[in-house]
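Problem 12. The chain below contains 147 residues. Write out its predicted structure in token notation.
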Amino acid sequence: MSLSKEVNNGIMIFIGIGIYFLTMELIGLSHVFLLRMLNILIVIYFVNKVIKSNYREGRIEYLDNLISGTITSLVGVFLSVAGLLAYISFKGGNEYLNQLSKNFLFGGGEPSMYQYCIGLLFEGIASSIIITFTLMQYWKDRPLKHF
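Solution.
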């Protein structure tokens, strides 16, 4: 059984973000807010890869590619948030979460690990949709000869 390219690239987003954040934690930079935001580049890379692949295969319908890019990014978001929840639980739950930087986008107060992950899930879904729409605007006017 082979997985679709959307699911494969969504898994690659999860792996890329996981490696990125584990590396940041190992070198002691996980508290730096701006570095935490750079994970968006991983999502952009893999969503772009799927859309570009679709164009190469002759799938140039806007809605098809919009759905394809959205599925890719959402698979990455859901797996990443589930992985984060597991990691926080492994590291000590709410006690570990309280050690993390207070500078997260939807923040304020002291959220539980479930509240934190749900907030990240909504933030990830919104970013995924924005990234996909932005890339679709980029690709929709590209002539097919560039592929």
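Discussion. The mean pLDDT is 87. Students who got a different answer should revisit the alignment rule from Section 12.3.
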